[in-house]
Amino acid sequence: MIYAIENHTLSQRELNLSAMQLGDAEVKTLADALCSSESIQITRLDLSRNRFGPKGAKALACWLARTQTLEELILEENSIKSDGLIYLADALITNKSLKTLNFNFNKIEDEGAIYLIRVLTLATQLIDIYGIQTASTNTQTTLALLSLESFGNFIEPLTEFNLSQAIETLNHTRQKCLQQDKTVQRI
User: Fold this and answer.
1) pLDDT in tens, 99-153
2) Rounded CA Rg of the chain
3) What is the spatial order of strands in the sheet that 14-16 belongs to?
4) 3-state SS of the chain: helix, strand, coil percent to 5?
5) Selection from 109, 91, 127, 111 nearest residue 101 by Cα
6) CB within 8 A of 118, min separation 6: which ones?
7) Total-model pTM
8) Where are the beta strands (DSSP E) in the chain?
9) Which among 65, 127, 131, 153 could disulfide-bond with 108, CB atoms 3.0 to 4.6 Å apart, if both were Cys?
10) CB-hemisphere CA count at 13 Å for 100?
11) CA-based angle 84:59:152, to the nearest 5?
């Protein structure tokens, strides 16, 4: 599998494995292959319309926590449920590249969404305290996530609203901080 992925990504940075009937075991094998090779630098991974659940999401989360090239992760129409989203949310704490996460139609309930809201709120607080980059290392301090797609789950409307507000607040705080950084650089 590593050979196939490496050959695929040498010419493309996108990997589309949509509707391949991948279960937890296959997604774990994929995640292990992605983790074991530094030459694989995927920016977009589409795993929509497969059949993996929380165990597959947990394996993906291990890779997501390590990769710093993935910008878009599409998990639409699987069964990751709340437990799987919690694993992915934990991975977002250390991931600095993911900008779009699509988990539409994954049987996620309030528990998973609320956990993700907490991670987004923490990221917002870190930006407020430390800014986008730390001066000593010139590295990004928190996640890059810009958009979430969460339709078709079992999330209550108020929780869905709070989730959209959390990502909006994160993006607003990030923009405000970037504007302040530009102002400081001009002075």
Assistant:
1) 999 999 999 999 999 999 999 999 898 888 877 664 444 456 567 899 999 999 9
2) 17
3) 14-16, 44-46, 72-74, 100-102, 147-149
4) 55, 10, 35
5) 91
6) 89
7) 0.88
8) 14-16, 44-46, 72-74, 100-102, 147-149
9) 153
10) 13
11) 30
